[in-house]
UniProtKB/TrEMBL annotation:
Belongs to the D-alanine--D-alanine ligase family. Its cofactor is Mg(2+); Mn(2+). One of its GO terms (cellular component) is cytoplasm. The active site is at 13, 184, 315. Binds 2 magnesium or manganese ions per subunit. This is D-alanine--D-alanine ligase. GO terms for biological process: cell wall organization; peptidoglycan biosynthetic process; regulation of cell shape. It is found in: Cytoplasm.
Amino acid sequence: MKIVVLAGGLSPERNVSLSTGVMVTEALRRLGHRAGLVDLYFGTQAAGEAFFDAPVPVEFKRIGRQAPDLEAVRRSRAGESRSLFGPGVLELCRAADLVFVALHGSCGEDGRVQATLELLGVPYTGAGYLGSAIAMDKDLTKRVVAGLVSTPAWRTVSYGPEDIERLVTETSLPVVVKPVASGSSIGVSIAHTAQELRAALTEGAALGGRTVLEQYVAGREIQVGILEDQALPSIEIIPKEGFYDYANKYQPGAAREVCPAEIPAELEEAVRRAALRVYEALGLSVYARADFIVDGAGEPWFLEINTLPGMTPTSLLPQEAAAVGVDYDALCQKIVAASLAARAQGR
């Protein structure tokens, strides 16, 4: 098959996406597909068949400790177009048998790219546009699933700098502060003091000001991948310091990952059931990864679900798949096959 791997884009998770894109492109080529990598935002000058044989920039595999400066990314693109699609991207997608969506975050994981491809009649990987859009919004996701699974109490606020002191005064601590539509823990903080909350809200205002204030639940970080509508073995994340933030996610050795998680069988079954309930309620398909905190009493609390889990050298879904005998290349092939089936079924 001719497959365009769509990565990069204009999102705080841009560098994570490029790492995923390189890994996936290499795997698809090993599987015998003609796969080429293109940056959604910058596009390509490679034309026609030459694109599918172009070298893959392996330096993109490594992810720095800091998210990219998006203003600098914008300035580095030639021309004044405001389109999120760079030159030649849509033409390449139209010429492909499939687009492997290796995008992460608000530019690519929120349903807009999926809807564009849908309108063009181009098959793509992962969940459909509507489920992607709902799952990207943490507030809306929690509203949909609150009656199906346990999720920490929350409220969503839209605010500016002038509202920060009021929010600090009226918010119970400790609290988790997270942007409504972001991933890779970018902009996420755990505030134990008024000073920490003030700093988190100040950062949130710079990210747009629409923020979820979520009850802090102490416990073990357990995540469950879903592949082909089936839950994979859970994985426990144990950061060496702090919580599972951007740096701890993508720096090798920053966190210990145990898969399958060392939890009782009944808890394993409970988190898998909860992950599938969320996945089904949002109308997702192909693959996803749900995040939980398990408290001291053994109660799993659903936090959020990721519709395009990372496929980087440190990502979790490939580890969970490996636990049931599915290596990285086989995982990519399963995603391709399941996505084609889902699109054919209108999912």
